[in-house]
């Protein structure tokens, strides 16, 4: 049975301080763009970092990947498509695709986050609030 995946698209503009002397976005900023995508996803789908903290958990990133295909330049706008990948594990898995103004794929990547409780213990099972969110979202 294939479960549905939730997505969110956020438009962002490249700021001057994100570019290198060649006028292109420095590669390290793409991870920040992924965070912009996660934050937009959380606002749209009701799973923000504040919601997670309020439930007594934190979600550190334990893995991130990023592949670059085309450059972005100062002043350009682009779309970050963030997709939540459902898993039975107690993890937040997000895939990202960044598209330029011509809708060409600039970059893709993934992050994996785990749940730690208030005593920094790794959660092996979905926290109750997270399972309730997944149930509400039909995951």
Automatic annotation (TrEMBL):
The keyword Signal does not apply. InterPro entries: 4-hydroxybenzoyl-CoA_TE, HB-CoA_thioesterase_AS, HotDog_dom_sf, YbgC/YbaW. Signal peptide: none annotated. It comes from the Bacteria. Keywords: Hydrolase. PANTHER family: 4-HYDROXYBENZOYL-COA THIOESTERASE FAMILY MEMBER, NOVEL THIOESTERASE SUPERFAMILY DOMAIN AND SAPOSIN A-TYPE DOMAIN CONTAINING PROTEIN (0610012H03RIK). NCBIfam families: YbgC/FadM family acyl-CoA thioesterase. Belongs to the 4-hydroxybenzoyl-CoA thioesterase family. This is Acyl-CoA thioesterase. The lineage of its organism: Bacteria, Pseudomonadati, Bacteroidota, Flavobacteriia, Flavobacteriales.
């Amino acid at each position: 049975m294939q479960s549905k995946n939730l997505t969110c698209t956020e438009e962002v503009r490249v700021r001057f301080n994100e570019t290198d002397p060649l006028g292109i976005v420095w590669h390290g900023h793409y991870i920040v763009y992924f965070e912009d995508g996660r934050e937009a996803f959380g606002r749209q789908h009701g799973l923000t970092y504040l919601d997670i903290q309020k439930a007594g958990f934190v979600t550190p990133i334990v893995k991130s990947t990023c592949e670059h295909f085309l450059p972005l330049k100062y002043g350009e706008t682009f779309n970050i498509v963030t997709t939540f990948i459902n898993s039975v594990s107690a993890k937040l898995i997000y895939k990202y695709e960044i598209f330029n103004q011509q809708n060409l794929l600039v970059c893709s990547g993934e992050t994996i986050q785990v749940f730690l409780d208030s005593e920094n213990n790794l959660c092996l099972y979905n926290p109750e609030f997270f399972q309730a969110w997944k149930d509400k979202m039909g995951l």
